[in-house]
Structure prediction request, 114 residues.
Amino acid sequence: MIINPSYLLIEVRRILIIDLDVHQGNGNASLFKAIPEVYTFSMHCRQNLFSAREISDLDVDLEAGTGDVSYLATLTEHLPRLIDGAWGDDTSPDLIFFQVKPKKSYVTRDDTMP
Prediction:
């Protein structure tokens, strides 16, 4: 199911999209680049782009082979800032979309990013 968060701006002021897919969140970045009320965050594998890269409000590139500890530490570093001031003030989002597309092929036997 696809949900277009921009329709929700009638009811809420600010939306945060946290995209943790292994690929860069270029769809979200492209769709919402001109909508300042929607903040897009993508944390993804630098080497795993399948189409043209777009610029999210915040892109975090991880190296192939990034393990669980480093992945979670990087996410933990960014989440508080996203939730408590992504727009450059102390305002939190009214709604957060958390997008993950887990696929067995994304995780190697040693639990690292491909």
Remarks:
- The longest helix spans residues 68-83.
- The two ends are 26 Å apart (CA to CA).
- The helical segments are 26-32, 68-83.
- The first strand starts at residue 15 and ends at 19.
